[in-house]
Design a protein that fits this description.
By secondary structure, this protein is α/β, with parallel strands linked by helices. Helices cover 39% and strands 19% of the residues. The mean pLDDT is 92.
């Protein structure tokens, strides 16, 4: 019996996710026949100053909503709760919103189901779906470089928003620009970007003009429109955007479409 060819067979794909998240994506790609090359473009760390997040955790009861826009936000928030000896049950009196299924699953890991998850996994959709927010107090724990769009939208609806840094995004200490240039110039079929910061750090590492030109022959795959916008603004031609904006949808779209693009 003739064995079927895997949909990504023969493709070399760069994975730019943080090291701790790259493994699962790389495994999915390899199971479809691809050669996954992990080149983490961001590293997630605890914030240098935890006063703001600690104060918000110790005063959770004053908030009407806590909005989580990433898995990292949930993980670092829960970690600080543990370090402060604040029980997870303290979140029971607060409504919780999550940007998508992965973030929702992270919240469900403590036995709590989010009160709201938008049907389209974009932060601005959260503001539109929470109903009347006039006078409501909202806690927004997220990255140090997160977009200001969501808090502005929430404040436009009358909400009182406390933005706190739950984690910071930095360039990996072990990032070697020469290695990135060598990988790109050796021949790559696709690059996967999962956040604007992965795009920005990748482009910064390829400041050499000749290396940037190599990207014209590589399929750029983005997890969502915000990341795709960052890639386009950096001069890349985006070939594929996952819909819905999840890793599973991204891999499925690549399996179904990437070789036709």
């Amino acid at each position: 019996m003739r064995m079927s060819i895997m949909p990504l067979s023969g493709m070399k794909v760069i994975v730019t996710r943080p090291a701790n998240q790259a493994i699962s994506l790389s495994t999915k790609l390899r199971n479809l026949g691809a050669t996954a090359i992990e080149v983490p473009m961001i590293e997630i760390q605890s914030p240098s100053d935890t006063d703001s997040i600690d104060n918000s955790i110790q005063n959770l009861r004053k908030y009407d909503w806590v909005i989580f826009t990433s898995v990292h936000g949930v993980e670092f928030f829960l970690r600080r709760m543990t370090m402060l000896h604040v029980p997870e049950s303290s979140l029971d009196g607060v409504k919780i919103a999550a940007i998508g299924p992965a973030t929702s699953a992270a919240i469900q890991s403590i036995g709590r189901t989010p009160d709201y998850v938008p049907s389209e996994f974009l932060s601005e959709r959260i503001a539109a779906g929470l109903g009347s927010l006039q006078g409501k107090r909202i806690l927004l724990p997220r990255a140090d470089i997160a977009s200001k769009k969501l808090p502005l939208l929430l404040r436009d609806k009358g909400a009182l928003v406390d933005e706190v840094v739950a984690y910071k995004t930095v360039v990996p200490r072990e990032l070697k620009r020469d290695r990135i240039k060598t990988v790109v110039e050796s021949g790559v079929d696709a690059i996967i970007f999962t956040s604007p910061s992965t795009v920005h750090n990748f482009v910064d590492a390829l400041k050499d003009v000749s290396s940037m030109k190599e990207l014209n022959n590589i399929k750029i795959v983005c997890i969502g429109p915000v990341t795709a916008e960052a890639a386009t603004q950096s001069g890349m031609q985006v070939a594929l955007v996952a819909n819905p904006h999840t890793i599973d949808a991204l891999v499925e779209a690549m399996a179904n479409e990437i070789k036709r693009l």
